[in-house]
Design brief:
The structure is a homodimer of 441-residue chains.
Chain A (H helix, E strand, L loop, with lengths): L2 E2 L20 E13 L3 E7 L4 E7 L15 E10 L7 E12 L18 H6 L1 H4 L3 H23 L3 E2 L5 E2 L11 E4 L2 E5 L4 H11 L1 E9 L12 E10 L5 H21 L1 H6 L10 E5 H11 L12 H15 L3 E5 L12 E2 L2 E5 L1 E6 L2 E9 L3 H10 L8 H8 L5 E7 H8 L21
Parallel strand pairs in A: 4-6, 7-11, 13-14
Antiparallel strand pairs in A: 2-3, 2-5, 3-4, 5-6, 8-10, 9-10, 11-12, 12-19, 14-17, 15-16, 17-18, 18-19
Helix pairs in contact in A: 3-5, 7-8, 9-10
């Protein structure tokens, strides 16, 4: 019987190995990204797993015709490796021979191999399977990968356990109308708006837990900041002394992520010319003070005492940056009536909660806070709000049988990515965005 | 303005630090797991993030009454650290004082602090928020965490890019009736049965991609191996020479995972007495040969020439183990009519596909294979099957504009976990399982 041993033969050479082969001949594979014909020779750009590398076609050393290849062909190239100081890889690849593995049957209707894909956002998204092949487009999602890697690494180092909670649920954590309903074998069920209930339950099990997974919001808002499916970076931690513990943890997690990107993702940071923010210290300001600060600085009238208008979030970030240099700001003590039923109230002022949002470059990217851990307190608050306590029996089980003081947060991964890259629209930081009008590709 | 610096104060001592404090007094926190009263003293087991540690209550050194504490209380303990060779942590913690942070309001209706939770599977799952607090129950999901960590680490080392593809989709990859339908703002949409279409698209972008995320199957089967929501470990790789490349990659990934568990998760492996399988070489056998082998060895008649019956999977694993020593087996060349429309057929025999399943300890845990990358071939096969090609326009975009030869697989994380731990039911390897009858907690 034949056996799989796990030995994977390396048949072609990777870009970081090129310099070991100077003076020799190697095979490299990839998709032909762009052919730039000059007189008597051509530059052939090859898209590999991460880098786009430059090869030279020249009549004196190439044993094939340039007509045999075209853009988006999948090929294996045989090339001479010549030392070349001016190249990023330190070498020049002279194409000797070519093997074509597959060819497109049509030319892309959208030019994808210029510096940027120059088209409308609708086209960019409609043709996602090919527009993502653009080197800058795909770099965005390498950076997003790096953020997730860093968050996981940091939280694991801090002894958080990674959990996987269900996305088909019996009740919404946020309540309200913005929940997708599902026919679940004749029963009513919903798509999870957040892993809130489950991550709290898991605090009773592991004390510290995190999850990076999709959440679903049936919001009809069609704005540059809303997605109907997005990735939520959630953590929840027990034995907190106060809700500042959560903000400290998030600050440290973001600090770690920025260092991780610098270390592992400099190729993409350079390509996209990303300016990473300083995260040495993130200022905090109480919600009402923030409202008043913006009103005063920008001579605006406060219309909504419960929440920020999007314009106010932008202005708040602007004035905080001016006063403190920070591009992040924690806004704390949101009004109780605007926060969910599980939010812990401030014992000194029950009108406000021990909660926070994190704003970054004009946009709210995180919501968090301390939760109620006491059973009686939780049941009383649910009754106050007119909720049917019986429906939440399995949620309340943890409170009933003992829970430590705890809290946590949820961060929108696409929002964070898009502000990090200073994109206009959160869809640009989503591989295949879902909005009110879009469910394809 | 106050600032969050990311500095997280350590207020209590973690178990691995205990030995540094011998002769001193420390604070530790956790939930009281069990109190065992003896004459004149008591053992108090404290559940911390990962370990259950033993503390001693003794009238000569404890400055509080044993009546002040109870099971599932959240506490901070002040303790003298005394050297004790017989203890796992190398020390004995003598409880001096206690601070109670919170208390349950009722006693758990199910005993959770024995070696095993001794109750029906229904009770175990109905009371999940508390039954998971049992030390063996929670160890299961630490091991599952370890598997995911290892898979991600291994695939990242192999230059796979982690992607996040949508779970609300416009068409099912597997087709058929077992798909959940959703009202998406008046449009028809579905819950993804697999990231198949998207991971293939992303091969055109990064060459190698992976995703570990939930998938949804509206199957009405209520068996010990079916879940309606499960975690799929998916990878997809371009520039393969043949479909063996995929099996080699999976073999290496599993080898890496077993080593990772040994290295990082020995606490849980010991607790659950897990026997890790050998993965030095995984035998392969063609589907028809496997059918015939089982028929011959066990004197059975072949009834279904298209697929295995569950009993046959068990018997096949049994005979393969007897003949080769391996607890894994790759079954290859499944019949074309039972594989999806994107499966690559064997050019030597179009009745079979270049596909495989991986069976482990009697259960299919992975399905994979080479995919069709040629546009004309894919369209022809869809037409043969009577599919409406126009509905798959965005899927076929990648084939049209150029795709390398590629393939990949999807592994059921809960199935793998449950076979690794030799559990009877895949629900036992799921935090909050979803089946035909269960959508809570």
């Amino acid at each position: 019987m034949n056996r799989m041993t796990g030995m994977i033969e390396q048949r072609t050479i990777e870009p970081e190995q090129f310099s070991e082969y100077i003076g020799g001949t190697i095979k490299v594979h990839g998709s032909i990204y762009k052919i730039r014909k000059m007189s008597g020779f051509a530059f052939v750009l090859l898209r590999t797993k991460r880098e786009v590398i430059q090869c030279i076609y020249g009549e004196e050393f190439s044993k094939f015709s340039l007509n045999e290849i075209g853009e988006e062909y999948s090929v294996v190239i045989t090339a001479n490796v010549v030392k070349e100081e001016r190249s990023k890889t330190g070498v020049e690849l002279q194409m000797v021979d070519i093997e074509v593995l597959s060819k497109p049957v049509a030319e892309s209707p959208i030019v994808i191999n210029n510096k940027r894909v120059d088209t409308s956002i609708d086209n960019l998204l409609n043709y996602r399977p090919i527009t993502l092949r653009n080197e800058k487009e795909r770099a965005i999602f390498k950076i997003q990968e790096g953020l997730c890697q860093a968050f996981r690494e940091y939280l694991s180092n801090q002894k958080f356990t990674e959990v996987r909670t269900p996305k088909i649920v019996y009740a919404g954590a946020e309540g309200g109308a913005n929940i997708f309903q599902l026919n679940y074998f004749g029963k009513e069920a919903y798509l999870a708006q957040s892993p809130q209930f489950y991550k709290q339950m898991m605090v009773g099990v592991y004390e510290r837990v995190f999850e990076i997974a999709p959440v679903f919001r049936a919001e009809k808002h069609d704005t540059s900041r809303h997605l109907n499916e997005y990735t939520s970076v959630d953590f929840e931690m027990g034995y907190i002394q106060n809700f500042e513990d959560i903000m400290q943890m998030e600050t440290a997690m973001i600090q770690y992520a920025m260092e991780h990107l610098k270390e592992i993702y400099h190729y993409e940071l350079n390509l996209l010319k990303v300016k990473l923010p300083e995260v040495e210290g993130i200022p905090t300001i109480r919600f009402m003070e923030a409202k008043e600060l913006v009103a005063k600085e920008y001579k605006r009238e406060i219309k909504d005492y419960d929440d920020f208008e999007p314009e106010e979030e932008k202005l708040l970030c602007e004035v905080i940056k001016k006063k403190t240099g920070s591009e992040f700001v924690f806004v704390t003590h949101y009004p109780t009536r605007k926060r969910p039923f599980y939010a812990m109230e401030d014992t000194e002022d029950r009108e406000v909660t021990l909660s926070f949002d994190l704003l970054f470059r004009g946009l709210e990217i995180t919501t968090g806070g301390q939760r109620i851990h006491d059973y009686e307190m939780q049941v009383a608050k649910m009754k106050e709000r007119g909720m049917t306590v019986e429906l939440f029996e399995s949620y309340l089980m943890m409170h009933k049988y003992g829970m430590p003081p705890h809290g946590g947060l949820g961060m929108g991964l696409e929002r964070f990515t898009s502000r990090l890259l200073e994109q206009e629209n959160v869809r640009l930081a989503t591989l295949f965005p879902r909005d009110v009008n879009r469910v394809t590709p």
